[in-house]
Predict the structure.
Amino acid sequence: VQLVESGGGLVQPGGSLRLSCAASGFGFENYAMAWFRQGPGKEREAVACIGRGSSSRIYYQDSVKGRATISRDDLKETMFLQLDSLKSEDTAVYFCATALKFACTETSVLYQFWGQGTQVTVSS
């Protein structure tokens, strides 16, 4: 299993970023995928999760609801996270992860496979 994030960077408050997670080595289309983040001095937290299939259940953390959109392209084995109206408190390293389960879970300890992370810094 390999997960590689990209798309992070420095953005001003109110700006947008689109994060990508390229997956390989497992049946991507069969499993739920999630984005987590870990800010400075904070614990890792679930940001969003998307289940498998065309009727995928989607979860968003309350702090990003209305500002984040998670999606997946099963043919390209890639997951995305669109972040809009970014705030300084969104500054964190963003990780993609899979627990190789069909359904979403927000519990980080259940995820065995993680990417290396991509830094998002929101600052003027």
About this structure: The chain has a mean pLDDT of 95. DSSP finds no helices and eleven strands in the chain. Residues 36 and 81 are 11 Å apart (CA to CA).
